[in-house]
Design goal:
Elements lengths: L2 H32 L8 H7 L22 E11 L3 H7 E2 L4 E2 L9 H5 L3 E6 L22 H9 L3 E3 L9 H14 L3 E3 L11 E5 L2 E9 L11 H7 L5 H13 L4 E7 L10 H13 L3 E5 L7 E6 L2 E6 L4 E3 L4 H4 L6 H4 L4 E11 L6 E17 L5 E7 H4 L7 H19 L4 E2 L2
Parallel strand pairs: 1-4, 1-13, 4-5, 5-6, 8-9, 9-10, 10-12, 15-17
Antiparallel strand pairs: 1-14, 2-3, 7-8, 11-12, 14-15, 15-16
């Protein structure tokens, strides 16, 4: 091969090699920009081809339904008349310390009342101190402040203070009773220190707004002990116009349930009077949901009623919760045993109110009763004690003698007839 041919061949080889380098460089640059092979494995290529913000590997959640509030159940326990007669005052007095202690009277019902979300009763009397009025019972009730300590400790939250004995110690007694109840963290309803901004008590219990109003049919003719202006402002005597105003106020405040505490009817009558029924109908028609009755001192029937598709409940009288009214003490006043024995009876009403979490509708879910009987006996040191017993828990107790159990059995039978005849069942 000539020298010139060899030179041409070498030049061609160099040019071919340079071409390969250029081609490889172009291919490498193209791979870096666009990639090759399976596009699903090349995130650079995918992100370049997909619209901004879209990623097939991310699961977009479906729109969620709004959360439904849980259904709320509020339990209310309600009891009747609390009165303190002379034998109760004497039995609670400690002469060595010059103090009173009434806690023993509530020892057997304390757990029941404290288990409720809210407990309510009627305090029949006053706590006016003993500077002007002595501590005394009927006919002008004035109890020491220690009764309120025991009531508070028992689990009661609200006390209706308007009744036929609320003026027993006149205007000063009304004022001091309200003050002493409030001082202990309980809510008084029906009487006031002065004209209130509203006569309605509204309490928020677990998210359920409960409105309370309280009225009495009579004040034992003691109206004249106060000026008309003070009486109108400080004591809720039944007045249909005022009651209508209070119901409207409760509705305006979006109350879920309206409870009316009514001190009405005829003493010792075991059947409600027509005027009670007529007033109950008016209250229900205007918007009251529950009526808790007191004053007759015996258990009267209770009823569940329907108004425009809504269940309402009335207890015309819950009987005595705690007192010294019984066969032995009332016979001297001319009452026969067949009449006076029922004053030993009472009930705690066990009411469940339910607020539907989905609809917000509030209704009376169920109503039951706990039959009570008031025991009176001697203590080990010779004193006298009065104890409220829930009958079903103590009817077979070794703490009580057979004579006591016989009277307790009679009470259970009579109370059951009053309540169950109208569809109200006993609490288990």
């Amino acid at each position: 091969m000539s020298k010139k041919s060899r030179h041409v061949r070498k030049k061609r080889i160099r040019l071919f090699s340079l071409g390969l380098v250029v081609i490889v460089g172009i291919l490498a640059a193209s791979y870096a920009v666009n990639g090759f092979g399976n596009n699903e494995q090349n995130p650079v290529n995918n992100s370049a081809e997909e619209p901004s913000g879209v990623n097939e590997d991310v699961n977009v959640p479906e729109p969620s339904e709004p959360e439904v509030e849980p259904t709320i159940t509020v339990n209310i326990k309600a009891a009747g008349d609390i009165m303190f007669h002379p034998s109760q005052l004497d039995g609670a007095y400690n002469s060595s310390t010059n103090t009173y202690d009434f806690h023993n009277s509530f020892k057997a019902v304390k757990d029941i009342l404290q288990s409720a979300d809210l407990s309510i009763a009627n305090f029949e009397g006053t706590t006016a101190g003993n500077e002007v009025y002595a501590y005394q019972g009927y006919p002008l009730f004035n109890a020491p402040d220690e009764v309120l300590d025991a009531i508070k400790d028992s689990g009661i939250d609200v006390l209706s203070t308007v009744n036929n004995h609320c003026l027993d110690t006149r205007k000063a007694g009304v004022i001091r009773t309200v003050q002493e109840i409030s001082k202990r963290g309980m809510d008084p309803i029906g009487t006031y220190v002065q004209k209130p901004e509203t006569r309605v008590l509204i309490k928020d219990v677990k998210g359920v707004k409960i409105a309370f109003l309280a009225y009495t049919e009579m004040v034992n003719g003691l109206e004249s002990t106060m000026s008309p202006e003070d009486l109108d402002a400080m004591v809720n005597i039944i007045n249909e116009k005022k009651i209508s105003e209070d119901i409207a106020y409760a509705k305006g405040k979006n109350a879920d349930i309206i409870i009316a505490c009514m001190h009405w009817g005829d003493e010792y009558a075991r059947v409600q009077a027509p005027r009670q029924e007529a007033l109950a109908d008016k209250l229900f028609t205007q918007g009251v949901d529950i009526i808790l009755g007191s004053h007759p001192h015996v258990v009267q029937p209770a009823q569940l009623q329907e108004y425009d598709g809504k269940t309402k409940f009335v207890a015309y009288s819950m009987g005595n919760f705690l007192s010294n009214q019984r066969i032995e003490t009332l016979e001297p006043y001319g009452m026969t045993e067949s009449e006076s024995k029922y004053t030993e009876d009472g009930v705690i009403l066990d009411i469940n109110i339910e607020k539907d979490g989905e609809t917000g509708e509030v209704s009376i879910k169920n109503v039951r009763y706990i039959p009570l009987w008031v025991y009176k006996g001697k203590t080990e040191d010779g004193g006298t004690e009065h104890v409220v017993y829930p009958i079903m828990e103590y009817i077979e107790s070794s703490e009580l003698n057979e004579k006591t159990k016989t009277r307790m059995q009679r009470s259970l039978s009579d109370t059951s007839k009053q309540m169950q005849s109208l569809g109200i069942s006993a609490a288990e």
